[in-house]
């Protein structure tokens, strides 16, 4: 009887996760704990980093099988949500419903600052390729510089799914650290006098322009880069809901319930892709370093494009606005305002910075579409 | 390497082209709306 009981307990122990824990699992639990710390204590992008951290934790519990193909619960979330390209476009539907294009429409030339910041994406792509990553991986790393989480996830799922978790965590971590990363670059590339430049008053935008823009804008971008259609179409549909002011219920759902629900599934699915086998490589360190470089170079290229525009135009723009050309809405715009206010506390740049900030979202969408067209 | 350079150059150009098209769209829409709201007056 005792022997049978011991054998039964021994069998149970052999089938429990405790006896199958490896050092790799332990390291991934520490990674999950680190991400939870950043989300809960430091409040770094908690809406995404918290579900990502929990996904990392539970996907690295031996024998749980949550990422077992065709069987695991998280695998199903990942497969039908991300591999089927459902969740990132739905996120963009919500973001579109939250976006006010007014600042961009009132100062349309600032759109080129959003394009300028994408130069950093391509420079980082080139550097990653030179460091030994293949073209698709290099493109996925480069898009981190766009500072747009859903676009990064979408592109990674299409071009380099083995890097999905890594680039997503890098993108969201650095987006949260924009107030630390950008100011030194901005100050290095501008003079005190440039930082004090005051912007001209913006014109009033007619409500009809706001309704027509999502239609015409999506036409132009999707016709030029058809591969951007899933994200661009949803983004502009959400914005059309908002600006038409006739479907408040749909707008509210996109802004709140839908966005919140898909954010949960996005976060936990992305986190679950970070298994010890896929994450614990020296290459991951290079991805994080290149991701940081992408943010720095994108910030610098945005500022430098603004300075170039000042050389070609009579109406000077504050070159700090170029730093808002990386997406990271609205964090990058706030950083621009703060750095500008340090030079002149009566210089209110926030509203002006929202223009290139939103343009950065469009620019990153186009850059991702171009990568998919040329490499996908 | 050649392909990386091709992606780098054409990608950067495509982003500026795309944003240029969006810029033109904004300007054209603003002009058209302005014209309509003024009742067709120049």
Q: Key terms for this structure?
A:
heterodimer, A: mainly alpha, 19 helices, globular, B: 42 residues, mainly alpha
Structural write-up:
The complex is a heterodimer of chains A (376) and B (42). By secondary structure, chain A is mostly helical. Chain A contains 19 helices and no strands. Chain A has one domain (23-61, 71-375). In chain A, 73% of the residues lie in helices and 0% in strands. The longest helix of chain A is centred in the last third of the chain and has 31 residues, at 282-312. The mean pLDDT of chain A is 91. Chain B is mainly alpha-helical and 42 residues long. Chain B has one domain (1-42). The longest helix of chain B is centred in the middle third of the chain and has 36 residues, at 2-37. The A-B interface holds A 104-105, 108-109, 111-112, 114-115, 118-119, 121-123, 125-126, 129-130, 135, 138-139, 205-206, 208-209, 212-213, 216-217, 219-221, 224-225, 359, 362-363, 366-367, 370-371, 374-375 and B 1, 3-8, 10-12, 14-30, 33-34, 36-37.
Question: What is shown here, in short?
Answer:
The complex is a heterodimer of chains A (376) and B (42). Chain A is mainly alpha-helical and 376 residues long. Helices cover 73% and strands 0% of the residues of chain A.
Total number of domains of chain A: 1
Main sheet record of chain B: none
| Tally of helical runs of chain B | 1
Compute the number of structural domains of chain B: 1
Number of helices of chain A: 19
Order of helices and strands of chain B: H
> For the CA atoms, what is the radius of gyration of chain B?
18 Å
Strand content of chain A: under 5%
User: What is the arithmetic mean of pLDDT of chain B?
Assistant: 88
The main sheet of chain A comes to: none
Structural classification of chain B:
mainly alpha
> So what's the overall shape of chain B?
rod-shaped
**Which residues of chain B sit in consecutive blocks of at least 5 with pLDDT less than 50?**
none
Total number of strands of chain A: 0
Residues in helices of chain B, as a percent range:
over 70%
**Broad structural category of chain A:** mainly alpha
Helix content bin of chain A: over 70%
